Amino acid sequence: MRKGRKIRIDDWDKPARGWRKYERLCNMQPKVRIHRKGGFYYISLFARTKDGIQLDEIKSSGECAEVISESATELILSLIRPDDEWCIITTPKRRHITEYHFATDICQKIAKGVKIKFYESAMQCLNRTRINPEFYLLRPIKEQRVILFDDICTTGSTLTAAYDLLKDRKQVICIVGINNH
User: Fold this and answer.
1) Among positive and negative, which fits the CA dihedral 154, 160, 165, 170?
2) pLDDT value at residue 20
């Protein structure tokens, strides 16, 4: 008789081998953290957890978008003085089947709460790779201070590629809704 694979409690978040995968979950309890990725820092608002709602379900939920946008708005208002120098953009839309775009919904709510301009679909992706995406700006962004928002960060490559387009600005604040590391 074969026994199942034993997993130590402190190894719960390591990827499984073979066909088994651990569900990616978040309990939607704020856990604000600062992370370093290459030559820049980003702030995550929530983190992957052992229990909670599946990330795919979160990405289709207007209620979860509201929770993340409220947390982001509160954080942003504690960091900046909103004026005409600030705007918010999100990473490019990629691999979206439905019309609802989670990150866009969050950014619209943040822009309204902080009273800054939101550039919807400001960036486009030239390729479909997850590891080394190539982005370009679709329109000029006049503001010199930019808040760059990404809904979920797993490897950080999307955020890095988007940041590289904006690093010549006076200031870029990178915010991630859910850190999936």
Assistant:
1) positive
2) 38
**Within the chain, which residues score under 50 in pLDDT?**
1, 12, 16-20
CA 27 to CA 170: how far, in whole Å? 35
- pLDDT tens profile 101-122: 999 999 999 999 999 999 998 9
What's the number of CA atoms in the CB half-sphere (13 Å) around residue 3?
Answer: 3
- Backbone CA torsion sign across 48, 52, 54, 55: negative
Q: What pTM does this model have?
A: 0.84
pLDDT value for 18: 41
Please give the structure tokens belonging to residue 27.
């309990």
Query: ∠ at Cα 133 (104, 138), nearest 5°?
Result: 55
At 172, give phi and psi (nearest 5°): -130, 120
What is the spatial distance between Cα 83 and Cα 81, in angstroms, rounded to a whole number? 6
Question: What integer pLDDT is reported at residue 133 of this predicted model?
Answer: 84
